[in-house]
Sequence to fold (473 residues):
Amino acid sequence: MNETKQIQVLKSLAEVARARKQAGKRNYLATVRVSPGAYLALSSVMTFLAALLLRSGREGWALIIVLVAWGLVPALAVSDRIAFDGEVLVRRGLVPFLRHFVFGKREQLSVADVERVDTNAVRTLRRGGRVRYRYRSQLVGKGTGFVLASGGARYREMVRHLFPLILDNKLDLRTRDLRDYLCDPKLLRQEVKSLQLASPDVLENATSDFKLGGRSETTETDAGVSGIAVERAVHLRRLGNRLRIAGRLKEAGEAFRRALIVLPHDAWLIFDFARLLRSQASAEADANLLARARAALRLSSMRADEDARLLALLGESLLEYNDVTRAERNFQRALELEPATYRARLGLADVALRSGKLAHVINQYRDAAAATTEKSLVAFANREADYYFSLNDDDDYLSSELRRINWLQTLSHMRRLAARITNASILIALLGPYLNSTIGSMGWALASSSLMAWLLGLFGTHLLGRRKRSPIN
Fold:
C-alpha cells in the first residue's frame, strides 16, 4: 500500500471515529438548573454548625465547614441540571452522578412515561397592575419526579420544547397556559405595540368594571369589517393570555375587554377572561373580583354548547372554587357529548372523593383507564383505582393511611413552626450578647433545638410523603 493510499485510509478511519463519537453523544435541546432550595438549606445548616464550632473555640473546623458550605455546595448547585434531548428528561451533574454510582439508578424520565404535569404559581412581587410570578412545574411518572422552576430564558426554552410533546390529558390548567402562551418578554412587548394597547400608566387609573354579555359592535351584514374585527379579537385573546401569564394583569384585562366587545358570546374567550379575573382577585385580595370570576365561569359553561373539552376544563376550574355541584354537572355534560373524555372521568373521581364515595371513585378511575389507550395514563388510573379499592376494602389499610396522613400534617406544621423559631432564635443569639451573655446563650440553645426539630420534620415528611404499599399489589 503506497503512502497516498495509507493517508486516505487513515482519514476515512478518523471520519468514522468522529461519526461514532457524535452518534453516541446526546444532543440536548434545553437544560435548566435544578431548584437550589435544597442546596441553600444545606449551606445554611452548615453555616449554623460552623457558628457553633466557632463559639466552642474550634476555628479550624469552622473555617473548613464555611468554605464547603459557600464554596463547594453552590458549585454543586450550579452543576446540577435537568436536560431534555427531545425524548428523555435526565438529571445531570456531580450529585446525580454520585447517586447513580452508589445506587445504580439514573434519574431520567421519557416523555411517553410522563403520567401528569402540575404547575403552581407563586406571586413574588406586586407593583401596580403587574405581578411577578414564579412557576414550579412537577412532572411525575414511573415513580420518578422532576421539578422545573421558572427563572429566565432557559425555562422558557424547556417549556417550548417539552410541553408540546406531552398529551393534553396529562397537563393541568396552568401547564396548558404555559405551553400555549409563555413567550419571550421582547416578543410580548412587540405584540403589545402592534395591537396598540394603552400604556400601563393609563390603565392604572382605568376602571375594570367590564360587563359580560353585551352585544357585538360588528354586524353580520358587513362581512369585511366583521372578518377583520374577529381576527383582531382572536389576536387580542392570545395577547391577553400571554400578558396574564407574564403577570401584566391590567394590560391583559384591556386586551380581553377589547376582544369581548367583538366576541361577547365566545365561550373560550369568556373562560380565559374568568381565569384572568381569578388572577386579579388573588393579587388584589378582592372578593368582588372572585365572585365575578365564578360568574364568568358559569356564563362560559352556559355557552359551551357541545364542546366537551371546554366543559371538562370548566369543571376543573369550578373545582378550584369548591363549586362541586356545577363542576359535576359540567363533567357529566362532557361525558354525554364524548364518553371517552379522560379528564372528565378524573374530575368525577375528584368530586366523588370530596363526597366520601370511595366506590364511585374506584369506578371513575376504572372508566378513565378504559377511556384511553395511552399506557402511562392507563397505568396511573389503574394505580389510583387499586389504591382506593384497598382503602375501601381493607379497614386496617385505611387506618394506617389515615395515621400516615395525620402524622404528615403534624410534621409539616412542626417544620413551619420550627423554621420560624429557628430564625427568631438566631436573631436573639446575635443580638442577645449586647444585652446579656445569658440571653445570647439561651438564643443559641433554642436555635439548636429548633433546627434539630426542623431536620427531623424534614426527614419525617420525606419518609411519610409516599403512600404505603397497597395489599393487593
